[in-house]
# Entry
Amino acid sequence: MPRLFSYNQFASGSDVVKAYADKHSPVIICDKQAKRDKPFRVKVRIGRNVMHPNAPDHHYEYIQLWNLETLVSEVRLQRSSFGDQPVQIEAEFIFIPKVSLHLTALAYCNQHGLWMSEEVDVQVTD
Ligand SMILES: [Fe+2]
# Structure
């Protein structure tokens, strides 16, 4: 089982440690309410405020969106599509919810492992 990192594990650290956690943390951006059986849009951004490197030897490889233990969708990132400078990569997921959601995003940095967002609850109504 891989270790799973999140911003809150580092929140009491120094500014350097917090910046390290910030640039690795996926953030879920979406409405907190959705309509059942209608397309629902969720954006995931890597980094709260700090940009992550996008170098050949240090970059993000994928972003996943989960609803509890169910994988909703996954985006594989082609590093060269995002330039060679630090960047806050964003991916958008559009799917059809049937029941209320408890979303979590996971993102994988090839040097610093698997990072988890905070959970976001979305109420789904008719
Ligand atoms: Fe990293």
The radius of gyration is 15 Å. The chain has a mean pLDDT of 97. Residues 24, 52, 58, 109, 111-112 surround fe (ii) ion (CB under 6 Å).
